[in-house]
Amino acid sequence: MKGIIKNAAVSLLVCMMLPLTGMVSLAGQWEQDHLGIWSYRYHDGDLLKGNWYWIDGNLDGTAECYCFDAQGSLYQNTVTPDGYTVDSSGAWMQDGVPQTRTIRREGTGRPFGMASLTGGVLSNEWSDYRLVIPPGSDRKDTAEYTDAGDPDQEYYDLNMLTTDGEGSFSMFIWYYKDKEPGIPASSQMRKHNYDLIHRYNYPEPFVESEQTVGGHTFSATRFYGWGYGHIQFKRKIDDMVMDMTFSYPDRPESEEKVMDFIERIMPAGGV
């Protein structure tokens, strides 16, 4: 089986067994040393270590789960330290049956952060949102981030400025690697906000809350300064962080337009 998936671009999912977590699109390759021990080298050159990982080697939409020790060696034909059985290929087994998981994203190799833009409708299946871009908006960078590109880069979905008689606002969405997986999104946001306060001396307090946007719960922060209001949303998806930020002139009509826009964001499959 290793021969099939060696040197393949993979869909890889970090799993903690109970519960199993979400998926992230990565690239890497299997390696075997002179002793016949297998390891998996991450796309940035590091070995996967000390955890369970779902790997869909042939991109057929079905992944098997593998466990690696602290040095990055694959457990094979044994019982792992946390009590799970793996076969000679390293796949997790239960009652003699390899355990698999269906990959929830398209098996096309499309980078995880890429959005689909049809007319004025922008949607992203991976992060599960769909929004309608207001007519007349300046869709900065939209084309760049809805085209195929380097699957290992960070992706913006949209950097948008909209202005009309009802108010104006700017919005951008981006994703980045979660470098603090043990820290909740709300705590990461609070740390970021404290940095902003100390660095830029924002004159008013940051108001924190949780808010549902497009059917998903985000940690949210609202703050004001120097004539502008800002609303930032943050949530974790697999081993990535999604940020969605709105900035607008500190006027009632602009804030009302922003809030109306946010309420209209739907899941990707929404109508």
TrEMBL record:
Highest taxon of the lineage: Bacteria
Signal peptide interval: 1-27
Protein name: Cell wall binding repeat-containing protein
UniProt key word Signal: yes
Lineage, opening ranks: Bacteria, Bacillati, Bacillota, Clostridia, Lachnospirales
Keywords on record: Signal
